[in-house]
Amino acid sequence: MAQQNQEKQAKGGKDEGIATRAQDYSQWYLDIIKRAELAENSAVRGCMVIRPHGYTIWEKMQRELDDRFKATGHVNAYFPLFIPLSFLTKEEKHASGFAKECAVVTHHRLMSKDGEVIVDPESKLEEPLVVRPTSETIIWSQYKNWIQSYRDLPLLINQWANVCRWEMRTRLFLRTAEFLWQEGHTAHASEAEAREETRRMLGVYADFAENVMAMPVVQGAKSPGETFPGAVQSLCIEAMMQDGKALQAGTSHYLGQNFAKSADVKFLNKEGQLEYVYATSWGVSTRLIGGLIMTHSDDNGLVCPPKLAPIHVVVVPIFRKDDEKAKVMEESDKVAAELRAQGLTVKIDDRDMHPGAKYYEWEMKGVPLRIEIGPKDIEKGSLCLVRRFVLEQEGESEQDQRKRKKTFPPRAEALASVKKLLDEMQGQLLDRAKAMRAKRTRVIDSIADFEKFFNDEGGGFAWVHWAGNAEQEGELAERFKTSVRCIPFEDQIPAEAKGEGKCILTGQPSMHRIVMAKAY
Q1: pTM higher than 0.90, yes or no?
Q2: Is 85 exposed, middle or buried (0-12, 13-18, 19+ CB in 10 A)?
Q3: How far apart are CA 308 and CA 58, in angstroms?
Q4: How would you label 302-338 residue by residue, b for 16+ Cβ within 10 Å and e otherwise?
Q5: Which residues constitute the domain of residue 473?
Q6: Is the pLDDT of residue 364 over 80?
Q7: Which of 185, 304, 343, 455 has a CB 3.0–4.6 Å from the CB of 366, allowing a cystine?
């Protein structure tokens, strides 16, 4: 089927196997993942296999984030996958918040009986083990051994790991039973220091989202009903996807002394008194790849910001005769070598297949730049550069847009311009995403306008005054499928949304607006 689609595309036909965003956004998302070879469902229900092309994106995300963590004084460690059930239940809100999502190990051995492999009933564990949904409890049990004095603080540790949350309804990258993430867990001598850490790490996430993923975000606090189980306050970054829905792209939690108390982690302060440690935790996961797809991709496949692209440039040699092949391949090798010397990742696609099928595949996989090299290009001393995307112009046809993607600069000029071109594309993706978000953002002052926005206009980010409680938030969720995405920091509120007002539902006074949206 894939080969048939490639041949159709090579001949100018449309790939009938891919839904468009306008037709079926949900199916379009899954089609992009499949055709770009990012991930696929595994034999285990709700779990995914991340394919090499998708995993390379995650590796690049890891490197970028890890460098930022280490620049702020954090170090990496690793903690067990299994957590004693008693650890999880020490913090009541934490336990109740994750109870329905936990996978539990009760036995440690299999046996063969009557030709069938079964659980050995005599291998029952003395205490059940929870497969980690998050690591606060197991980590704080160790911190008890590491922290005695204020001199041991702050303790700034991050872990790259996998976690398991037994989700009933799953979707690749966005929500799976097992996923990859990082989780920072820090300990501090004061509330002020811990709150500063919580805000600092949210800023790290926001910087990464905007300057690496080219995905604009709003920073703020979660509502009480959306706060992480066991936390005093949860902060978040919220991004808007192309269908107008919000995606929580990262969270940072001020845990107060809750987990220190549950694990009995005390320290001797400067005054010689014992007190409980103050804590934070913060994390992002492979759902960021889902956010990348839904922020930038189009009906022709994945669009990947150059800073995260597995391959920066694909070189496609084009020839018909054997005597042309030698010259074209020699030039392709030279071009690739010169680009690699600039620190770029380059792929030469010399497979024996129609060039059009290659174009289709690399466009689908989101390679930012394609260089086509044929005998005529060599004769002219030029290169054919084809960008994965250009900014859309009003009233422009798809055919006209494709023409603008292709240029034929002189060879030396072309090679010297590649890094600048990739930087330009990176910036344009952020500009395009900001423009898309602005187009689907409204400042709303009445429940009637709120209803019109979400029921008739497709929705997006609604900046509204809100003074309702959790029950009233649930009422809006039932009516419109919306939720309070974040209570934004003052510097995140646009000028047109600033000022006091009245709650759109209750009419009660409200100091500032919050962001409501439908969400993933």
Answers
A1: yes
A2: middle
A3: 8
A4: bbbbbbbbbbbbbbbbbbeeeeeeebbeebbeebbeb
A5: 441-517
A6: yes
A7: 304
